[in-house]
UniProtKB/TrEMBL annotation:
Its main location: secreted. This is DNRLRE domain-containing protein. GO terms for cellular component: extracellular region. Residues 1-35 form the signal peptide. InterPro entries: CBM96 (IPR055372). Keywords: Secreted, Signal. It is found in: Secreted.
Amino acid sequence: MRRGLVNRYSWNSCRAFILFCSVLAAALGWTGAQAADMATTETVTLTPSRDTFVHSANPGTNYGAEESLLVYELNSTAVIHAQSLLYFDLNSLPPGTIIDRATLRLYVTDLTNTQPSLQIDQLLGFWDEASVTWGTRPQAVNVYPNVPPPTQTGWFSVDVTDLVARWVHQPSAHYNDGLQVRGYSFAGAGITFSSREGSRPPELIIDYTPPATAVDIPIQANARLDLDGLCDSTGQGEYAGGAHYRYVDHEGAVSDLYLLQDATDLYICVEGIAVTDPERSFAVYLDRDNEKEKYAESDDISLRIRVQDGETSSYVGTGDSVQTYVPESIDGWEAVARVGEPRTLPDSAEFRIPLDLLTARCGTPFGLAVFHEAVTENGGTYGWPSEIGPRFPETWVETLLESPPCPIRVCLDSATACTPAGPGTQVFRVADGRPFNVDALGYVQERDQIFNGDALWALVPMTATQAYTVYYTSGVTQTVDYAAFNATIPGEMTLVATADQPLMLFDLVVSTEWNLTPAEEDALLVDLAKASDYLYAFTDGQAALGQVIIYQNLAQWETADVRNWANNRLRPEADPGGMVLAPVTDPVYSDLTYYPGQIHLGSHWNRFNTPPGQPIVLNGAPVDPSTLADDRALALAHEFGHYFFYLFDTYFGLDDEGHVVEVDSCTGSAMGWVYEEKNWAFVADPVHWVDNCSDTYAHRVLPRHEWATIQLWYPWLRTPPVISAAQLTPPVPLTRLSVQPPASPGTPLLDPTFNLLYQNGETASREARALIIRDDRVLDQGAPPQGSTQITLVGPQENDRLCVVDINQNDVPVAQRYQYGCEEIQIGDNELWMERDTTWAPIIEPHPVTSTTWQITVTQPLAAGLDLKLRLYPEGKPGSTGADLSAGDIHTATVTLPEVTPAAYIQVWVDETDTEINPARVAFIDFGIGGGTVPGPASFGEKAPVYSADGVFEFYPDATVELVYGEFVSVVRYLNTYPLPANTVLAGAPYGLVAYPASLIGAGTVHIRYTPPGTNGMAGAALQAPAGEEVAIHFWNGQAWQPLETTVTPEPTTGQAVATARGQGPGIYVLLVVDPDFGRVYLPFVSR
């Protein structure tokens, strides 16, 4: 404590010393305490119980029934006066009340001249409204001289705080008989006020602090205060963090009390008016069982210190009405007193009391009273919460410690027969997520950091694998309070973790294809955390992510659970059961094998699969981008259903002929349309599954409800009792996210947005794509927004080579593009020149010859003397392989790779002059990228189809084939294709299938998603095709386009449709629309 503080005194202590203290406070600079004032101020407005006026000219007349109160002087010679009397009943204020402010309000109805001032007196005797007259009025003493009078009609206010404080704080010395308002001697002035019988009765507005009835004592960990008797609460003083209360002391003054606890002791520091009586003391009374007996019993104790000499004594209750307390030695407590100076410095005392002395049972409330005793010659005693009788309290404050020292224990299965929770157990404080460890007996450590009112939740690890840890939890959060410490074991709070309350935390490794910027890092962390919370909701609070480590720039790429691609149009995709470390056969359906796999996630995703910045229109209205903010997190949580829980999709089905049909009846399934809250669950009801989900693809693959599948793999999880699709959130953040710094950070660009200098007034078409080449590998950027001339790149660095290719030969004329451009990125240059050449539209076709050898064919007329070159970049890996293509209009080359490559980019360019404003002709295609491949060892079949990276093209084989290492099936996204039949246009890009060996692509169905004419979809297209066209999938048979019998299935939820036809093996597939007018532009794809 700070010593020598002689001028700290509370201004509130001065309220009864009206003239003296106002001067002294200014002279000494007294300030109020800075500890937290825990008492609350209340306000009451009283009207008079009695009021009247008396008139000197009519000394025997009573005016108690009048509607007015008069204050005036008739003239200076006759000295005729009218004075008003008012009485306000203060008995509604409880004993111990502290008056903070009191205001008398009178309503002026008439003014005759203006008096120089008013005077307010305290009446000294009883008077009766119905009988009092000038001749019988009681005596009075002036309290407020020279009160400025009102100057106009209306409400008139006077501060009467000190008078009301006298009545309330010292009722025996200053009995409330009311007050008197009179004028100053000045002839001819008068004031008329409304009486209580009038329309606006007088008011006494009192702001007051009622006595405390229940308090919580705050904790200051590791406080261990040095006792010196000083209540230092200012600034960084020892009681600055304590609770501050006030009490009515000697002569009606207001003194201060401070309460604080640490891990082992309660500290009480109390101040009081200094007097000269040598027997004066401070005392702390403890009602240890909080039963508030009138006469203290044996569990009640009193601890005292005499101020004059610091002698301490202790007492215990007897229950006797005469000798209520008797002396008895009580060990462990300490007290120090500081002698004050009358009128200048208060007496004070400081107590340190062990917490185990406070209550008979830990965690229960106790009664507390603190008193300033033997202050007057006749033994007057004052204190908190109110003045007491002879040597014992008549009122108590019910008190709780903010952090009682009672133990908190974590048990398994039962609180009464406790099996202590084992190593690794953590108890979380819900408010801030802070974890607390437990000891070998299950008791929570750092107990002094847990406070009353804290909600707690326990997590007990039971089993752990490389992929996940299974925990038992304590279920619903429990609050630290009196009930918790007396629920099962007296004085001990128990958190019981049981097998009925399991939780699985899946660990995850994420690898990004690029180095994250701070903003991208934040966005990824937010989406991962949200995806974890959504998974928690889907599983009825039984699963979430645990430790998630994010690597950058392809670090840990091959072994990562989640591959985060730079591509801004990559559809999220996951391998069902992909978390397995080795192939596993379904326990029930032996024809279904799960292989190790990954989750594929793009740098951006929304349910419409548009690039960032692409305006979206649905059903004729623009879509608010904020409504899509959680789409990537929701999609990722959906993919967790595949990856962790071996589940399949419920938003579509396949009919007996393999045609895709939309299914919207399977509600309550997160494997369906996950963007609606009604589906934030997994189906547990077998009747609901059969009635509403039997048409889904999931049921076709696994004819059992989703929780049956989940419990087949994780039998310790419980089936939710009902379908409960809602945003259930974990009580504390469960996911521990960390980002590993990149091994080679490079030189990132401060501004990743590039202007694309399109020629001929054109803008980006729906088929434009952007790529970065760095360190002999491709960083696919996805696409610029359709209709724009800008793109915001992902992970660009100085000296990268940026290429944008927008070649779309087979669309309607207004949508055709022949533009391309490449240049090395330099800091400060954010423009890319786009060259336009209508003769450049190569058809690039890859054909696997062996598992490592590819034959590439390029159909493109080329002037004599020019050479065509190619380079093949394996996806996600450095180390490309180049080749020279043969001469002629059909160019070929054979590329042998060092390893099996089922996914790659192929770059083709003309070996010619290449400058920023005159770039060499260039083109790109890809196969198998973004998860668009099934590489062996794996199952390939109806239950394991292959998708394009953007989700537009799908192929479902009729029969399942087991692929061995070196075999693969991949989707190709072509740049251009062979001339189309007359009066047709291409609805999107050409796609195709390649495989090694080619026989892997047998009978099956091809599906192409598109936005049909006449519907509303994404903005960006100038027009829509007219109704009535025929839509059909065509296959290039090597000589001509072969139309296939096509079925179109609408998807009303997105305004899309799916075209389905029987597959024809490896080759190129297109969706063609017959359009004899060639005057419309088709909307781009939207992938669901």
